Here is the input.
Amino acid sequence: MENETQFSNFDFFDIFTSVLKHDTDKINLLNDVLTTLKEVLDRNNVQERSLEWDEIGAKLINGKVILPDTFENVLRELVVDNQLALLFLPEDMGGYGFTNLFAGPIIDLISQYDFSLRIASMSGIGISNLLLKYYKEPFDNALQGFADGSRIGYVAFTEPQAGSNLKNIKSTSELDGDEYILNGTKIYISNGGYGNTGLFLCNNLVNGKVEGTNVFLVEGNENITTLRLEKKSGIRVNPTAQLLFDNVRVPKENLIGEIGQGYNKVLERLQGMRIAVAFQSSGATKRVYQLAKNYAETREQFGKTIGSFNDVSRKLDSIKSQISRLEYYAYLSAYALDISNYNLPTDNLNLSKVPVNLTNIVNQSVPAGIDHNLTPYFVSNAKLYCSETCNSLMYDACQIFGGLGFISETEVNKIARDSRVLSIYDGTSEIHHWIINRSQKIIESIDKFVNPYNFIPNQTVYDKMLELKFPGIFNKI
Ligand SMILES: Cc1cc2nc3c(=O)[nH]c(=O)nc-3n(C[C@H](O)[C@H](O)[C@H](O)COP(=O)(O)OP(=O)(O)OC[C@H]3O[C@@H](n4cnc5c(N)ncnc54)[C@H](O)[C@@H]3O)c2cc1C
Here is the structure.
């Protein structure tokens, strides 16, 4: 029971102060950033406007992607005026060195306002991290462009026949002098046709034969045609495009990582984007809790507010109690990824009295024949648990609104529709379940493995549903 009490008091600043106690300047800066962002989002009435944006959606007119003016104005204020992406560049490149842990509260906050805005405003951060990992000078323009807000990013991996199984792509790259020529059709590309700087995954063609896969940085839109925008049930103001890459020429220096290693090595480096989905889930859940609570306190039936009925208050309590658990999963994974990327201090994680030295776990030497450490285990747990739980809670939140919960012009309905994508993009839940199970061999090799998820108090009905659907994630070890 003690864990339960501690857990419900969980606050993300616990993590910052315990893990990053030597870095109080950065924590203060994060506080200032959150205050500024909130002011921008409130001043522009984003929560109300997001319904208007949802109604208008993204449009493809004469081959050009058009977004509502008011959406673009807020986006500009976030990425150009406030240089959101600059925060994440390392200090020696003029940035502030924000890591995944710092990204968490920012993503969570913007997701409480509008998912499409969160996707567009932070589109360059994951790509910048990848470029920094495989840094070379020709990447400077793209990094600078993301930092000053002049670039919007996109990631072009999925193809009609290659969704979960990206090994099945047909796109190609072929060297021609000092350039690569890229060809292929990509589908479901977020910010597609709107973003001007992207990643392109393709087969590495050498003398007509496939020799591994490559990932390229693609700048500009020459020879890239937006064939269509998908009509979606959610995140409607974020363009989801089908893109044709027709003999797109890029300098050979735009190859990211080693030749032929795109799928095997480079893609593994995009874990931060998955953690972002976990934080989107916690942000969305917070907002619907607020909406449902306000509604339950004001809507009357049978001469009473509906919140006074047990069935309604139980639903509200259940949403509330899940919020800190979503944060737990999300921050734990952000911390694990930061340990893996930045060698954080080796303190015990002083969170909810969980006696886990995550640093030791993440840095554990990996048994022979296994080509990954435990970071994906934490990241996939967060992506899977947060996105699935958020979706279950959306059902309850809409139910509290009765008929209104089914009306697409209400904010709760819009957030529920937006949230549906969380368990699909950046790897479906089923794929993350597979990744979690893949880590089992490493876990078995660790002497006295202390599983941080065992410290989560009593299972709720949602965990039980998850357990039935994905029995692996609650395996007691
Ligand atoms: C709104 C939106 C935005 C997106 N943005 C991007 C983007 O920016 N860039 C990009 O490259 N892609 C993007 N995607 C694509 C997304 O990543 C894919 O839709 C996703 O990976 C699933 O691929 P699929 O749709 O082809 O489904 P499939 O892979 O065909 O899967 C269908 C079903 O089978 C299950 N399944 C597949 N394989 C297995 C397995 N081995 N075990 C168990 N179950 C399995 C899946 O989990 C799913 O339930 C986006 C998609 C959407 C809807």
About this structure: The chain has three domains: 2-153, 155-260, 266-474. The pocket of flavin-adenine dinucleotide is lined by residues 155-158, 163-164, 188-190, 232, 235, 240, 421, 424-425, 428, 430-431, 434 (CB under 6 Å).
